[in-house]
Each structure stands twice: as structure tokens, then as C-alpha cells.
Amino acid sequence: MFSPNAEKTHHADEDAILFGYWDIRGLGQAIRHVLEYTGLQYDEHRYSFGEKFDGREHWLREKFTLGLDFPNLPYIKTGDVKLTQSFAILRFLARRTGLFPETEEGQQRVDLAEQQVNDIIWHCVRVCYNKNYNNHLKEEYIGQFLGTRCREFNDFLDERNFVAGDQLTYVDFIVWEMFDQHRTLWPEYEKMYAPFLRLGAYLQRIEALPKFARYIQSDNEMSSYGGPKMPAPKPLVG
């Protein structure tokens, strides 16, 4: 469930999780994926991001009234638990639902993939929100993404079904979301993962998870990458 226009919904169950985030994919989408896949009961409080990041008034009015130790978005509240920071939230949900790594090797691989994806996401953000964004910057970034990032993940996965091995964990939803955001941002590269057979098979494996497949094909799936749409690249001259 979610609440449009930042209106809070009524909890049918007092133990339901209240999840708050902007009305974009951004750092909240992997949390949505885990909530939907695990079937945890939750209500979503969406705050308007605005066309030019100018819709923050509602969030700013509430920010310091929610009892959060470090007020920020995303957040969750359930019982006595009040958390911010997307990775802290994901780990909490994973421990509750069996999506936390069960072995030391699995934990190491999950930790590594989590931080690697975070680096890629913020590199992408810096490119997309660069006021001088153009085709040259795009091509340079995509070249590095395909030539290095995708190749490294393809090798990292090797013959494993999931990041941790045979166990599905919360980080698989983080990894899938990052790669899906890239093909959503640049649909002209819709076959960008074709050369990376293991990576491509991995993404399809995640997409085929029945409960997850139903969610990403539903009307509730957020379609925008995040925030004000970046300007169309201007043709380079000369």
C-alpha cells in the first residue's frame, strides 16, 4: 500500500511497517522490493519530490517530529523500531525475513556487493545531475559502466545463482535495482547486458521470482528513476 500526496494511510495491523520515502525510485526502491517480496504488511508514506525538487515542504514539516535518531528519508517505523539509512533498513528487514546471509563467505560477498553497488549508484547520480550533462558525458560513463562495472559483476557472480551463492539475500534486490535503473535511464542501450551472460542470467533469475515478478509488472512499480528529469543531452558541436 502507499499513500499518494504524502497522506498517511490507516494501519490495518498495529504491527505493520510504516515506510516513508520520496515518490521516486531512488534509495527507497530496493526497500520496496524486499517488502513486496517478503509479504510484510506495510503502509507507504510518499512525499512529493516535485518537478524541480521543490515539493519538500511536507517532509520538512514532519522531519523532526517522527522520533527518528537521524531524521532522513527513507525511514521505517514498526513497534519500537525507528530506523533511517537505506542499508540499515534493508539489513533489519533481511534479519526478520530470512534474507540475511547464513554463512561467513556469503556475508563477505554481500558486504562487498552492497558497497560496490553504492559506489556505482553515486557515480551515476553525479553524472545524471551534472548541470553540463551531454552526450559526451553519457557515452563516457556508459563506456566505463559496460567496460568495467558490468564485466566485474559478471566475473564476480561466476556460476552462482545469487550474490551469496545459492541463498537469495536482500543485496540481490539492491543489485537488480541498480542494473535496472541503468537500462531505464538509457533505453537506447536496452541490450546493454547481452554480452555478459552470467549477469544477464542473474538478472532474469531475480525477475522470475514469482512474488517479485508480480510486483515489478504491477501498477505499483515506480517508473521514474528519481527526481526532476535530467535534460535531454544536447548534440555535441565539432
CATH architecture of the largest domain: Up-down Bundle
* Alpha-beta classification: alpha+beta
For the largest beta-sheet, the strand count, sense and barrel status come to: 4 strands, mixed
Uncertain stretches = 1-12, 227-238
| Rough outline | globular
Tell me the β content: 5-15%
CATH topology of the largest domain: Glutathione S-transferase Yfyf (Class Pi), Chain A, domain 2
Q: Strand order, main sheet: write it out.
A: 2-1-3-4
Mean pLDDT: 87
Q: List the domain count as a whole number.
A: 2
Distance between the termini: 51 Å
Give an account of the 3D structure.
With 238 residues, the protein is an alpha+beta fold. The protein folds into 2 domains: 17-96, Glutathione S-transferase Yfyf (Class Pi), Chain A, domain 2; 104-209, Glutathione S-transferase Yfyf (Class Pi), Chain A, domain 2, CATH 1.20.1050.10. 46% of the residues lie in helices and 8% in strands. It is built from 8 helices and 4 strands, in the order E-H-E-H-E-E-H-H-H-H-H-H. The chain has helices at residues 29-38, 57-62, 86-97, 104-128, 135-157, 170-185, 197-207, 210-216; strands at 17-22, 42-47, 75-78, 81-84. Strands 2-1-3-4 form a 4-stranded mixed sheet, with helices on one face. Helix 1 links the parallel strand 1 and strand 2. Helix 1 crosses helix 8 (210-216) and helix 4 runs antiparallel to helix 5 (135-157). The longest helix is centred in the middle third of the chain and has 25 residues, at 104-128. It starts with 16 loop residues before the first strand and ends in a 22-residue tail after the last helix. Residues 1-12 and 227-238 have low confidence and may be disordered. Keywords: Transferase. Residues 103-232 form the GST C-terminal domain. Its EC number is 2.5.1.18. It is an enzyme of class 2 (transferase). This is glutathione transferase.
